[in-house]
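W.,

You were right to be curious about this one. When I first looked at the sequence I had no strong expectations either way, so I just let the prediction run and decided to look at it fresh. Below is the sequence, 141 residues in total, followed by the output.
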Amino acid sequence: MPSFQFLPWGVEHEINRLLLAVARRGVEEARRLAPKDTGRLAASIRADEGDRRTARIYMTYYTWYQEEGTGLYGPRRAYIYPRYARYLVWRVREKDIAWGKYPGHRAGDIIRARRVRGVPGRKFIYRGLQIAVRAMKSRRP
């Protein structure tokens, strides 16, 4: 059986070009699907050419938490507890009130919780890459 470790330069170049095109299209779709609180997460996602026959996708450190989920919805499937304090503490924001997240609270109120459920994964990078791959497959001659 022949080994495909070394491909002719033209073939290797074409594979890299197609991979980068799929990655860039996937990044465009992922940006469109990404949750937009401040817009920083969507703006941070980018694709670049990797080593041989690869493309790399870069993003902020917290993107993966939004992608995979945390707490009960994440890989560990467990509540989130405070590590060094008695409570998890955060302040209610205006937009949380507008979304109806904290009934009975006002913006600026402090919330204390002994545990939280976490957030479900949004799978926006996975879905973006799926859309890009489907689009490339439909362009086949």
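Here's what jumped out at me. The chain is about 40% helix and 10% strand. And, maybe more interesting for your project: The radius of gyration is 21 Å.

Coffee later to discuss?

I.
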